[in-house]
Amino acid sequence: MKRAVCPGSFDPITFGHLDIIKRASAHFDHVVIAVLENRTKSSLFSVPERIEMIRECVKDLPNVSVDSWSGLLVDYCKSNDITTIVKGLRAVTDFDYELQMAQLNLQASGVETMLMATAPTYSFLSSSIVKELAHYGGDVSSMIPANVNTAIKLRVGGK
Ligand code: PNS
Questions:
Q1: Annotation says 78 is catalytic
Q2: Domains and their CATH numbers in the chain
Q3: Are 56 and 20 in contact (CB under 8 A)?
């Protein structure tokens, strides 16, 4: 059984993330969306809130589950029988960092990384951009699912 992980902060999840997750789910028996518990990074949503939102977004994908982890990603992969990390590549600006991480993770543990080209519609999209737009009352409904849009409106209050 081939198991992959789509890791990230997902604060919050966007249509860009979901596009990668859906496409990855067509190539693996199981895909785990792993939400990083990052105590050093301030977040808009708590990890349990993010997990709940993501579960709602992927409820129609039977081979996708949601989890959280802290520490090294490759340790999470080893403990959960995951052979492959799948990440989206939006633009060349993502490339240096992702290549470094992929090479490090391969050398450290043998876990493979597959970098999937983001659909052009989402190449500009990031959770940070969504949060900034929402903070100033911008319309982010084309960038995030409806349940996430509702949650972000309640959280930032369109300020
Ligand atoms: O959504 P993000 O914030 O861009 O996700 C980044 C993430 C979580 C994928 C990245 O920070 C990560 O893989 N962290 C795991 C920690 C790790 O294994 N680091 C290895 C290099 S020191």
A1: no
A2: 3-123 (3.40.50.620)
A3: no
pLDDT digits (tens, 9 = 90+) for 83-135: 999 999 998 889 999 999 999 999 999 999 999 999 999 999 999 999 999 99
Verify whether residue 90 is a known catalytic residue.
Answer: yes
What are the angstrom distances between the C-alpha of 76 and each of 7, 73, 105, 155, 157? 10, 5, 12, 30, 36
Distance CA 29, CA 3 (A): 6
Name the residue at shortest CA distance from atom 8 of ligand 1.
Answer: 8
What strands, in cross-sheet order, belong to the sheet with 30-36? 64-69, 30-36, 3-8, 84-89, 112-117
Q: Which residue type does 156 have?
A: V
- How far is the C-alpha of 87 from the C-alpha of 100, rounded, in Å? 13
Of 9, 43, 50, 90, which one is the catalytic site residue?
A: 90
C-beta of 117 in contact with ligand 1 (< 6 A): no
CA dist 44 and 102 (Å) reads 28
Place of tokens 């080893």: 78
The pTM of this model reads 0.95
**Assigned token pair, 55:** 């579960």
Please indicate whether residue 142 is annotated as part of the active site. Answer: no
